[in-house]
Structures are given as C-alpha cells and as structure tokens.
C-alpha cells in the first residue's frame, strides 16, 4: 500500500470518527447534555459509574483513533504537496502534527478522567469536581475550540490547491471548514462555528480521502507499468 493510499483511507477513518461522535452525542449522550453547552455533571458521573466502557470507547474513537489516522493523513498530504510546494508543505505538516498531538492528548486525559471518576463512584461530589476539572483540560486541548484543526485544514487545503493535489471543490470545502474552526475562538459564535467546522470537516475528510485514493491508485498503476 502506498502512503498516498494510506492517507486516503486515514481521511475516511477521520470522517467516520466524526460521524460516530455526532451520532453518540445526539443519541446515547443526549440525556447528559453533551453538545448543548449545559452538561449535567451529576448525570455524567453516574453514567461513568455504571458504564465506563461506553465512555472509554467513545473517547478512544473520537480522539485516539482520530488522532492516529490524522497523523497518517498529515504525512501523506505533506508528501504530495512537497513535490510542488515544499515550504507550504512544511508549514501545513507542522500545524497538522500539532493538531494530531493535541487531539491524542485530549483523548488520553478523557480516558484517565473516566478511570478516576469510576474509582470515586462512592463519592459523587468529589467525582463531579474532578470530572469538571479534567473535562476543562480535555476541552482546551481538543474539544472546546477548533483553532488548531481550523488552521490546519485551511492551510493544507490552500497548499494542496496551489500544488495541484486538490481541486477547487475540495479546497473550497476545506477553506470554509477551516475558517469556521478559527471562528470558534469567539464566544458568541463558538457553538455555530463549531457545528459548521464539524460538518464541513466530515465533507472535507471524505473529499480528501477520495482524492488521495484515486491518486494513489494512479501512482500504483504507473509504478507497475514502468
């Protein structure tokens, strides 16, 4: 398997983790208040006490799996863009790996929080206080804003367009999603911008994945025909 094809598959995995996260938030975790800005901390603590495995599965999918797939995608796009725009590829690659690191860190903290909260099941008040603290750290790294993600998707989309890796549609989706991610830093627009970023990122990951898979298949055919 070529790196380009691996990057394409990784992009589709990233899209799948976003869809998984959205589905869980509006179904399984809806009673807990996730995604509404009014999380019921007591309900979260009670849920973790009863079903820690579900929460760990959720965190591992949307954070850890996403981050590992993202790292593959970042490297694959860097390699493709560097052929025509090495400086732009270096900048985009650095931002992308920073984002992947932050997402991975958020997932590790989220899972550690679940473990500690479950251990404190006999003291709901202490568990709620600890979860609130760790959740704030988790949100700061990978959930409460999308600055790093927005910066990378915007930068890599423009670089890929300039180097001929992406067409205008894929790059345009990335630009809109990336700008929305940057706008999440503004409190009044945070929730709306976050939703636009998330939905836009799903479309962008799918589009980028299909582009890379097609290019990877083309490169493979050229190699075996040479």
Give your account of this protein's structure.
This protein is mainly alpha-helical and 226 residues long. It has one domain. The protein is 83% helix and 0% strand. The chain is built from eight helices and no strands. Helix 2 packs across helix 4, helix 3 runs antiparallel to helix 4 (86-119) and helix 6 runs antiparallel to helix 7 (168-183).
Bin the helical content: over 70%
Order of helices and strands: HHHHHHHH
**How many extended strands?**
0
Structural class: mainly alpha
Proportion of residues in extended strands: under 5%
Mean pLDDT: 91
Shape: elongated
Query: Radius of gyration from the CA trace?
Result: 19 Å
Distance between the termini: 17 Å
Summarize the structure.
With 226 residues, the chain is mainly alpha-helical.
Set out the fold topology.
Layout (H helix, E strand, L loop, with lengths): L2 H24 L14 H10 L1 H31 L3 H34 L4 H20 L3 H17 L4 H16 L6 H36 L1
Helix pairs in contact: 1-3, 1-8, 2-3, 2-4, 2-5, 3-4, 3-6, 4-5, 4-6, 6-7, 7-8
